[in-house]
Amino acid sequence: MDALYTAVATATHGRDGRAVSSDGRIDLKLAPPAELGGNGEGTNPEQLFAAGYAACFGSALGLVGRQAKVDVSEAAVTAEVGIGKQGEGFGLQVTLRVELPDTVDAETGRKLVETAHQVCPYSNATRGNIDVDLVIE
Fold it and tell me: Helix, strand or coil for residue 32?
């Protein structure tokens, strides 16, 4: 693959540190959530992953919608990223909740969401590694 764009970010001190993008647009305090024993006074990697996946999936949905000549410009994607013990380490699970415009019928919506799941780089990167549930609302 020839990369069309490469994002660069650096994190220091793991979950209790800071994450900064090379262009300075992201500069975030990191902190584990209270549910994992942290103080919750910063963002965490799961939130960042959820935001990136939701935005990327929304773009993929827009692309397949335009190709199918179906207006999904008002769609919203919510990514829920869970973390938990998996064997000796930790694993992730994802639920993507896709809210489609009322003008899109159920069958067409399902096809568009499933096609977007094949197109989205996050979906392609996680396929076979993370359980991803697609929910159309």
Answer: coil
| DSSP assigned state of 68 | H
Q: Which of 135, 132, 117 is nearest to 57 (CA)?
A: 117
Q: Dihedral of the CA atoms 109, 113, 119, 122 (nearest 10)? A: 150
In the three-class reduction of DSSP (H, G, I as helix; E, B as strand; rest coil), residue 9 is classed as strand
Distance CA 60, CA 113 (A): 9
Q: Is 32 left (phi over 0), alpha (psi -120 to 50) or beta?
A: beta
Q: Residues 67-123: pLDDT tens digits?
A: 999 999 999 999 999 999 999 999 999 999 999 999 999 999 999 999 999 999 999
Q: Whole-prediction pTM value?
A: 0.95
Contact 43, 30 (CB under 8 A): yes
Tell me if 19 sits within 8 A of 48, measured CB to CB: yes
CB distance 137 to 98 below 8 Å: yes
